[in-house]
Write a structure and sequence with these properties.
Number of helices of chain A: 12
CATH topology of chain A: MetI-like fold
CATH architecture of chain A: Orthogonal Bundle
Largest sheet of chain A: none
Largest sheet of chain B: none
Number of helices of chain B: 14
CATH superfamily of chain A: MetI-like
Helix content of chain B: over 70%
Number of strands of chain A: 0
Strand content of chain B: under 5%
Shape of chain A: globular
CATH architecture of the largest domain in chain B: Orthogonal Bundle
Distance between the termini of chain A: 48 Å
Helix content of chain A: over 70%
Radius of gyration of chain A: 25 Å
Distance between the termini of chain B: 44 Å
Oligomer: heterodimer
CATH class of chain A: Mainly Alpha
Largest interface: A-B, 101 and 102 residues
CATH class of the largest domain in chain B: Mainly Alpha
Structural class of chain B: mainly alpha
């Protein structure tokens, strides 16, 4: 009798904590998971009115759509260029702040500040810098190089990569700084006593401990590089120069045509790519994590 | 013992200072340019912003990037704040979207994170896993589902279409769960032994322990949504309800002086938040550095 009352009591407490999860869970189901299932369904039918199954036809169509292919190619190029830079430069900044230089915390503030600045606020300056008659070209002419029409040429991606790095390096740097401070101190001290060179310490000790973070930052930057539409849209509008046309432009412009099958197929395709990337992240984190511990 | 250094402290300091200038430049330029008079701006950047609109006005061919205005004027700010209610209205739109999202998302997430932290059953692990995947998905994937739901609920083109997905975005749940797992379990057990109920443990043990965590997450959520472009662009076609972050890109070509002033005003709230809570922000970023629960 007493025992069952205690059980009931625990049951009620458990119920309270379950109820606390309820609002979030319901919201996620209604606003993300269930509609995503519908999107998966839409990607497999011919039209939301007729509901005939066409299986992979929508996917085949979208993979032959020239705008989609252009957008996918541009997004891939951008990521391949921007992600390594975002990792290496952020690691460089973190190491720089690890060195014994005055004003470290101020530098951290400066490097992190772009994160807070809304992109919409700085695109004006970006346009001034990279206009045909702008400051970047003046700088180039100092070295006798030819002026470029940055945003309307094949160099347009460079402009966006710079904006991307400016905005994201601070966040990545903080992740690296946290990881650097977790390296066991005695290990580095022993290396010092043994007379190890800074380069040896970096490659054999620090990089070893940093490897999970490097991977995490790389994947985070990869995911962020898919979001660069925002910067491009604010810089150049809905129909930018060809090399800046991204997947999100494709989706936005398809939204206006309200072609659900095409949209759904594109979203599902993107989700599949993302799941693969995220799976790599999970597996690698599991491996590396155990390795270092 | 003599330690070898590849670079002297002076070189490293100069390197850091160089980077700091690059990182600060766009923000500072936006600010100083907002203090220039309209005529000074058009003689500086005439070609970029005005040559297309008004061919009778003299515009200089060269673009002069200037740091310090010849004459400091606050006229643009007066124009924005007093003469044209349009900008203030858009600013207010941003507030109306971002503040409820921050409060709603953090509130719902605090409840959910407590629940996820308390019981480590298999189902809850799965829920956490699903949240992480959703969190890492780029907007391109989730916008189509969001659009469909808004349509079914009849809230498309109203603020609710942006607010609801914001309330239930899994980012805060993810980060708060990680913070809460660091609360010593002995503390919670002790409270239960003293006869506390689940709700009492939540409000009197858990919440005081993660006050700073909640603050740091609120900052991260705020800057993320203050900067949003994609969601309002698609879910909020009604221009009168769009936030300033979207509207700013449409005034670039009009009055440059006003655009710079609006851009400056728009970055003030996140910058103030940043200066006030930088250490919390760093703490928040540090804990986002792994996808494990």
């Amino acid at each position: 009798m007493k025992k069952s009352r205690r059980k009931m009591y625990i049951g009620r407490e458990r119920l309270v904590s379950m109820m606390m999860l309820w609002p979030s869970l319901m919201g996620v189901l209604i606003f993300f998971l269930l509609p995503f299932c519908v999107v998966c369904y839409y990607s497999l039918i011919d039209s939301p009115l007729r509901h005939n199954f066409v299986f992979l036809k929508n996917f085949a169509e979208i993979l032959q759509n020239s705008s989609f292919l252009l957008a996918a190619k541009n997004t891939a190029t951008f990521s391949i260029l921007a992600v390594p830079l975002a990792v290496v430069l952020a690691l460089g900044l973190a190491l720089l702040l690890e060195a014994r230089i005055p004003g470290k915390s101020q530098f951290r503030t400066f490097f992190l500040s772009p994160m807070m600045v809304p992109v919409a606020s700085v695109v004006l300056i970006w346009q001034v810098l990279f206009h045909y008659n702008g400051a970047a070209n003046e700088f180039l002419s100092l070295f006798g190089m030819q002026a470029l029409d940055w945003l309307k040429s094949d160099h347009a991606q460079i402009v966006v990569i710079l904006l991307f790095l400016w905005k994201n390096l601070g966040y990545n740097m903080i992740l690296f700084m946290a990881s650097l401070s977790n390296i066991p101190h005695d290990l580095l001290e022993v290396a010092d006593i043994e007379g190890a060179s800074p380069w040896y310490k970096f490659t054999r000790i620090k990089l070893r401990y940093l490897s999970p973070t490097i991977l995490f930052v790389a994947i985070l930057s990869l995911i962020n590089s898919f979001k660069v539409f925002r910067e491009i849209y604010l810089l150049t509008g809905s129909y930018p120069y060809e090399s800046l046309y991204t997947l999100q432009h494709f989706m936005n412009n398809t939204f206006h045509a309200l072609n659900y099958q095409k949209l759904s197929a594109a979203a599902v395709l993107m989700a599949i790519v993302m799941v693969v990337i995220i799976a790599i992240l999970f597996i690698a984190e599991d491996r590396f994590g155990k390795d270092v511990e | 013992m003599k330690r070898k250094h590849y670079f002297s402290r002076g070189t490293l300091f100069l390197l850091a200072a160089g980077f700091a200038i690059l990182f600060l430049l766009p923000t500072v330029l936006t600010f100083t340019n907002s203090l220039m008079s309209q005529s000074e701006l058009s003689s500086n950047y005439g070609v970029i912003f005005e040559s297309l609109k008004d061919s009778t006005k003299y515009v200089s061919e060269d673009v002069n990037l200037k740091f310090i205005p010849d004459k400091v004027t606050f006229k643009q700010f007066f124009t924005v704040l007093l003469a044209s209610p349009d900008y203030l209205l858009k600013f207010w739109n941003s507030v109306l979207l971002v503040v409820p999202i921050v409060l709603g998302q953090v509130g719902i997430a605090t409840l959910a994170a407590y629940s996820l932290m308390r019981y480590n059953s298999k189902i809850r692990k799965l829920i956490f896993f699903v949240y992480v995947i959703l969190m890492l998905m780029p907007y391109q994937v989730m916008l189509v589902p969001n659009y469909l739901v808004s349509q079914w609920l009849g809230i498309l083109n109203t603020r609710w279409a942006v607010l609801f997905p914001g309330f239930f975005a899994p980012f805060s749940v993810f980060l708060l769960t990680k913070f809460m797992k660091r609360i010593p379990s002995s503390l919670i057990e002790a409270a239960f032994i003293d006869g506390a109920t689940e709700w009492q443990v939540f409000t009197q043990v858990c919440l005081p322990q993660c006050r700073s965590a909640i603050y740091s997450i609120a900052i991260l959520v705020f800057i993320d949504y203050w900067n949003m472009v994609e969601q309002p662009l698609i879910l909020l076609a009604d221009e009168t309800k769009q936030p300033l972050s979207v509207y700013l890109s449409t005034i670039n070509t009009g009055e440059v002086g006003v655009a710079f002033a609006v851009a400056t005003i728009y970055m003030i709230p996140p910058l103030l938040l940043f200066l006030h809570g930088e250490s919390y922000l760093v703490e928040g970023i540090t804990h986002s550095g792994s996808v494990k629960g």
